[in-house]
Amino acid sequence: MTVASRVRTAVMAGVGRADRLGAVLLACALGLNVALPRPDAARRLAESLIGPVEPVAVSGPPAFRAGSAAVLFFDVVGVQGPVRGAVVVDEGGIEQVLLVRGHEGVDRTALLRSDFLERFRGRAATPPLVVHTVTGATVSSQRVVDAVNERLQAWKAVTP
Questions:
Q1: For position 152, what pLDDT does the model report?
Q2: Of 88, 89, 144, 90, residue with least CA distance to 112
Q3: What is the pTM of this model?
């Protein structure tokens, strides 16, 4: 049963005037929620990092470009759950690798508290990168390195 038919049924069932008004307002709110475009979180994050962006058609998670800069998102499965991050590249180099989500290691912060993400900064955006992993999150940090290499390879395939 659709929302519109539920609203109609509620109105026809003889509910009170306030209830009918509430049902109509709820239907309007649901309609607007579906109809209005919302920028997705990946795009908003990319824009906060490199300015106004345009999507780039690459395989896998989203990627966005602004001039020579790009934000390439990645998703991997860590030992303790999903890890989501992004590689920020500009003029052939890695500006930053950041994690949006990930709770790895005994204290669930192993990938964040170490200098692991800093090990990517300033490196050429040319795969394969070899980056030392984090003790306490060895498997998950290697998966992040692999994901960064995969995203750089996909980026290389679509850029001149």
A1: 96
A2: 144
A3: 0.72
